[in-house]
Amino acid sequence: METKQKTIGVLTSGGDAPGMNAAVRGVVRAAIKKGMRVIGIKRGYNGLINGDMIEMNMRSVSDIIHRGGTILYTARCLEFKEPEGVLKAKNNCIDAGIDGIVAIGGDGSFRGAADLSKEGIPCVGLPGTIDNDIASTDYTIGYDTAMNTAMEMVDKIRDTVQSHDRCNVVEVMGRHAGYIALNAGIACGATCILVPEIEVDLDKVIEKITIARKLGKQNFIILVAEGIGKSEEIAKKIEQATGIESRTTILGHVQRGGNPTVRDRVLASQLAYRAVELLEQGVGNRVIGIQKDEVVDFDIQEALSMKKPFPQELYDMANEISF
Ligand code: ADP
Ligand code: F6P
User: Fold this and answer.
1) pTM (two decimals)
2) CA of 274: how far to CAs of 77, 99, 113, 124, 231, in Å?
3) What is the mean pLDDT of the segment spanning 103-119?
């Protein structure tokens, strides 16, 4: 008896991240190599609900491994959060002959993948977000590129800060997570790093700037994660208390774009390959990650319940050497 050719779908969901294209490429190439068909689903779960899908082949993913953004587009799909939306998506999967899905996104996208898996469509999640706020993996796809972009931007800001003997409060992305702020802050020699994981004490920031000024320091970069916010206010308070002219820079979406780094391209390819291996075996409701350089996978609910510890030692070290 002839066995039916397996068909898998791939989608990108939530905020985009550099390396998503490399992940899509990895999924498409690995699946086709294993004799499967691949359907590209557009704009996250929207494409599943609206039937906005395209058949992909080896060449559909040519010339994208080095590009930021996502050729499949991404979106936040509120309808998919409702049971009716999940049911519609399930029926469209059945109509399109989709046997499994790789969903590339953050924890919200993983919740969606768990819901659809429960409905009988095996889904595997790949962590794609610049925030690195997924506990089941040491690194998320896009994080390394975003950190490097932030570092390059802060280096440029620092040139002008030094020339003018100023302070600049630089806000980087990370609504609930300070990983970009912490690492870009260390790499750029920020005087202080403010992250949502640690209570902010502005008096201490001011005291540190004052001491460092007395020690002859001329440039003051204060790296603030988006989750802290109030960057303008912080700059004003620093200027009032220290007399050092202070400016604010919000880096924003520049951190979400650009060509992915080596690390993000390799990570995306590795994780994509494992996702396809799982779907080939009919295994769903899993998320893939990397821990201590090993590719790992977990049950989605288990992964979502994990807590990522904040690297306090690294934070304390940064504080010690930034005078
Ligand atoms: P991210 O995946 O980056 O965390 P979001 O939280 O915006 O981004 O989630 C992306 C999409 O995943 C949502 O727009 C929605 O379609 C789906 N999603 C999020 N949360 C859930 C949920 N609790 N149940 C089902 N689907 C969800
Ligand atoms: O999750 C990634 C992220 O870039 C966060 O750091 C940021 O808070 C959020 O997405 C912004 O999303 P958007 O501008 O697309 O709504």
Assistant:
1) 0.97
2) 26, 16, 16, 10, 41
3) 98
